[in-house]
Amino acid sequence: MDHVAIMKKQWNLSPKILEGAKTVESRWYKHKIAPWNKIKIGDAIYFKDSGNPITIRAVVSKVIQFEIENNQQAFNIMNKYSMDDLGTKTLSKDINNYISDKNYAIFIHFSKVKKVKPFEIDKKGFGMQCSWLTVESIDKIKKA
User: Fold this and answer.
1) pLDDT score at 117
2) Which of 59, 86, 94, 144 could in theory staple to 112 by disulfide, Cβ–Cβ 3.0 to 4.6 A?
3) Whole-model pTM above 0.90?
4) Which residue ranges make up each domain of the chain?
5) Can you tell me the distance from the alpha carbon of 99 to that of 96, in angstroms, rounded to the nearest whole number?
């Protein structure tokens, strides 16, 4: 399977992926949605900043899923992974707000990061606000 992770451009995390400072991508949800139970070791992840083309490819090396009981548990989990996920030990107010009151968290460890020739995708059918896409092959949504 191939996956597209759409990143918040203002958090400036894509450069950290390329430098090797970010080796984990986390997603926090109210409900079990993709990539929950859809991502496996060996799958490819393509990263793009919102509004920009895909520029990075990596390979999944480990997946950890959490059912979150309360905000304290969420903050403890995020603090444990913050250096690998965000490239920083300090959680900003934006990050704390992002993970607050979520029921599920998934931490995707990745390796074999490489820059790819930029390309656009067609998100039709996934929803305008969708920030994670799972497809059989990236070629199915890659624009010509």
Assistant:
1) 97
2) 59
3) yes
4) 2-135
5) 5
- Residue 128 pLDDT class (50, 70, 90 cuts): confident
Q: Which of 64, 78, 62 is nearest to 107 (CA)?
A: 64
Q: Which long-range contacts (CB under 8 A, 24 or more apart) does 27-30 make?
A: 27/105, 27/106, 27/108, 27/131, 27/132, 28/68, 28/74, 28/98, 28/99, 28/102, 28/104, 28/105, 29/102, 29/103, 29/104, 29/105, 29/106, 30/101, 30/102, 30/103, 30/104
CA distance 24 to 21: 9
Two tokens, residue 41? 């070791």
CB-based contacts of 96, cutoff 8 Å, min separation 6: 75
Report the C-alpha gap between 62 and 108 in whole angstroms: 6
* β-pairing verdict for 24-29 and 132-135: unpaired
CATH tag, 2-135? 2.30.130.30
